[in-house]
Amino acid sequence: MDVKIGELPSWKVMWDFTPKGIVGAFQRGYCCYYDKYEQVCQCEERGRCWGFYGAYVLFNYCLSCKELKCERPHKHHQGETSVDGAL
Amino acid sequence: MNENLFTSFATPTMMGLPIVILIIMFPSILFPSSNRLINNRLISIQQWLVQLTSKQMMAIHNNKGQTWTLMLMSLILFIGSTNLLGLLPHSFTPTTQLSMNLGMAIPLWAGTVFMGFRHKTKAALAHFLPQGTPIFLIPMLVIIETISLFIQPMALAVRLTANITAGHLLIHLIGGATLALMDISPSTALITFIILILLTILEFAVAMIQAYVFTLLVSLYLHDNT
Questions:
Q1: Which of B34, B40, B70, B188 is paired with A41 by a 20 to 30 Å CA distance?
Q2: What residue ranges are annotated as transmembrane (chain B) (predicted)?
Q3: pLDDT (tens digit per residue) in A11-60
Q4: Closest to B92 (Cβ–Cβ): which among A40, A44, A60?
């Protein structure tokens, strides 16, 4: 914004002093800060972190898949006779 | 069930090739380096944490001891991140292996001891005999102090291994108990599930505390020898 020093009072009177205008000014200020400093690599950091953790868990699950097969519940066969029934 | 309890601590292989090296190198991806003046939130938070930890840990050291700052900060970051990643489901934790912890503890301890013997030989030898010892106790105390010196790296390694392994085993057992109780008594399963959640929170704390304790003890050994 190009405002000359002599035009400062008239520029200041042009401000929007309504509550809506004040809130809008703060929002614009925060958005300027956010766009300049925080949104630099935002997509990269969030996607990278959760993507890495998920890929790491999936990778380890695939490695331990063979051992996990033993822990699955087995259905009992219906044709088997028990020892108690034979006695 | 006894066999399955310890299979999670076996070193992982893929088609016969050990992939432990990849798992050990994985935490380094989570600490990106940047050459920007103002970084993103992740790097800023990490830098702030590292500065806070290094100031708190290295404040007691003199100039010679502060040359170990990079080593000790790398150590605490590595052990902390490895322990925390080990809390993810199905993951392998390298710090549950005694071989790895001994590989970290022995060189660091030996480095501090050799540094002490090289630069301050008299002070290093004086550690073998506490002040004010009665004369007839001197031989026994020298032997005891020598044994306690050589036990330091073993204690460092075994402490880390035992804490992390015990925590993982408890999580396995209580998780298995919760699953088994779901069909029998859902209310009891809910109680064991709450215990599991509390235990997981405890394990998060233990993971970070054990990293801090390991690094702090190495730092103390360094302080005694510099």
A1: B70
A2: 12-31, 67-86, 98-117, 137-158, 164-182, 189-222
A3: 777 777 787 888 788 788 777 776 776 665 555 555 556 777 888 888 88
A4: A60
Interchain contact, B4 vs A71, CB within 8 Å: yes
B107, part of any domain: yes
| Domain annotation covers residue B186 | yes
Among partner residues A45, A60, A63, which is closest to B41 by beta-carbon distance? A45
Alpha helices in B59-185 (DSSP H): 69-85, 98-119, 121-126, 138-184
Amino acid at B189: A
The partner residue sitting opposite B40, judged by closest CB among A40, A53, A57, is A40
User: Tokens 């002490």 label which residue?
Assistant: B116
Q: Chain A residue with minimal CA distance to B20?
A: A60
Q: Does position B211 have pLDDT exceeding 60, yes or no?
A: yes
The letter for the amino acid at B16 is G
Please state the domain count of chain B.
1
Shortest distance, CA B212 to any CA of chain A (angstroms): 23
B68 pLDDT tier (thresholds 50, 70, 90): very high
ipTM > 0.90 for the complex: no
A70 and chain B: CB distance < 8 Å anywhere? yes
CB B176 within 8 A of CB B1: yes
C-alpha–C-alpha distance, residues A36 and B119, integer Å: 51
Residue in B133, B134, B74 with CA at minimum distance from that of residue B104: B74
Q: Is the pTM of this model over 0.80?
A: no
Residues of chain A with C-beta less than 8 angstroms from the C-beta of B12: 60, 63-64
- Kindly report which listed range (A17-21, A68-72, B144-148, B204-208) carries the lowest average pLDDT score: A68-72
User: Residue A48 is encoded by which pair of tokens?
Assistant: 């990278």
Inform me whether the C-beta atom of residue A38 falls under 8 Å from chain B C-beta atoms: yes
Query: Which residues constitute the domain of residue B162?
Result: 7-225
| Chain B residue closest in CA terms to A65 | B90
3-class DSSP state for residue B127?
coil
